[in-house]
Amino acid sequence: MGTVHVVSIDPTSDRPVYQQVADVLRRRILDGVVVGGDRLPSETELMQEFQVSRTTARLTYSVLRSEGLIDAQRGRGNFVRDRRDAQRIASDRYRQAVERLRHDGDPQTAFTRDQGIDWSAYRLDKEFHVVPATADVATLLDLDAGTDVLARHFVFYAADQPQQMSVSYLPADLVKGTPVEDPANEPWPGGTMAQLATLGVEVTRIEESVRARMPTPDERRTLQIAQGVPVLTVTRRMLDHDRPVEAAVDIVMPADRFVLDYSLDLS
After folding, report:
1. What are the backbone angles phi and psi of residue 9, rounded to the nearest 5°?
2. Beta-strand relationship, 87-90 and 258-261
3. Which fold has domain 17-80?
4. Where are the beta strands (DSSP E) in the chain?
5. How confident is the model over 73-89, as pLDDT tens digits?
6. Hey, do 17-80 and 87-261 end up sharing a CATH topology, with the first three levels equal?
7. ω into residue 244 within 30 of 0, thus cis?
8. In whole angstroms, what is the distance from residue 267 CA to residue 264 CA?
9. DSSP secondary structure code for residue 265 in this structure
10. From CA 107, how far away is CA 114, in angstroms rounded?
11. To 5 degrees, how large is the angle CA 107–CA 105–CA 265?
12. End-to-end Cα, the chain, rounded Å
């Protein structure tokens, strides 16, 4: 076995030793000294390098896993997570999707455009139910609480990888008896705005509110989110002039995969 280079830890620091070791390893990851897919030292190797206990080594890797920087693979060790390039989501994505469908017959949706994939690489898991509107959904759709709405649960895939999920609500009386209420018609070329256009509804404004939080267990499992990675949640409302016609509560996406770009024209 070769000589082990010992990294000194400051015994007078107020920071726990495992946090100091995590600081060193985190910097190696962020500086690119180790990259996605690289195996990190075993617990025993970490103990030798930093002259720490096994408990400290385990706590160190627990910290890095909670930050979403590494993955533990049973029987193999700890590996640096692949920090894939984030998809940029522009504020004009809805308008561009509609214009392309209108002028070119292009079936792309805002999601496929964001992902940079063609229609063949796009698929949805979907589940539809008519349910009474909750107070929040009713407010967004300008309905009385308890009014029937069509709840559409979607998981969006790009090249068979789950990327985002959403629950979208439409007034039940707007879509009843139309192809829009049939999940067999999903994914719909052009997306929700193209669907609404078949009902004589023109979406003239879209409002979005963005928040961040930690994922639920179901979101983590469905979207294959690493431990420690938060999600972005987008509450969306589509309006035909002053009439709300659709509300998404919420669109959920892993925060390490997406960048939301918004521009404000002040001229």
Report:
1. -115, 140
2. parallel
3. Arc Repressor Mutant, subunit A (1.10.10)
4. 70-73, 77-80, 87-90, 122-132, 148-158, 161-171, 205-213, 231-240, 243-254, 258-261
5. 888 999 998 766 667 67
6. no
7. no
8. 9
9. -
10. 14
11. 80
12. 67
